[in-house]
Design goal:
Helix 1 runs antiparallel to helix 2. The two termini are about 15 Å apart. The radius of gyration is 36 Å and the shape is rod-shaped. The protein is mostly helical. The chain has 2 helices and no strands. About 0% of the residues are buried.
Length: about 170
């Protein structure tokens, strides 16, 4: 015959609390790991986006340098031709330079607009991911609340069971 070990309410409460805390900690650790993974992925994506944008800026800078080099070469060539006909050619060269600079400025403005658009899109992606993380955190909090309710119900059931057992004995 197995001897009966008296179980007190305090002992049951301590056991239930320990089990409850372990369940809560386990749930929180799982969700925290998921959130950290999401954050790491977000950081990696952000780093990739910034690398892409930096490459894009470098490419645009190279294009601008190339175009400036071409314009400069054209200007130098024209100045060589103009040296014999300075009076008649200065007006034409000046007009052509202004036109090309206007085109380069338009291209630069267009490229800057595109980069700003891309930055805006990256910011929207970041905002979306931040909202997703906030939503996930809200869900974790809801799940913790549900776990607490379930633990409370389990506590009541155990107490009712113990009261019933004590009445039967």
């Amino acid at each position: 015959m197995i001897p009966k070990i008296p179980i007190s309410k305090e002992m049951v409460k301590k056991v239930v609390r320990k089990v409850t805390l372990e369940v809560i900690y386990e749930t929180v650790e799982e969700r925290t790991a998921e959130i950290r993974t999401d954050i790491a992925e977000l950081k990696q994506k952000q780093e990739e986006d910034f690398r892409y944008l930096n490459q894009r800026i470098d490419t645009l800078g190279q294009k601008i340098d190339s175009e400036i080099g071409q314009i400069s070469h054209k200007i130098d060539s024209q100045i060589g031709q103009v040296s014999h006909k300075i009076d008649s050619q200065i007006g034409q060269v000046s007009h052509k330079i202004d036109s090309e600079i206007g085109q380069v400025n338009q291209k630069i403005d267009t490229q800057i607009g595109q980069v700003r658009q891309e930055i805006g899109q990256v910011n929207q992606r970041i905002d979306g991911l931040s909202q997703k993380i906030d939503s996930e955190i809200g869900q974790v909090r809801q799940e913790i609340g549900q776990v607490r309710q379930e633990i409370s119900q389990l506590n009541q059931t155990i107490l009712q069971f113990l009261v019933k057992k004590q009445k039967e004995s």
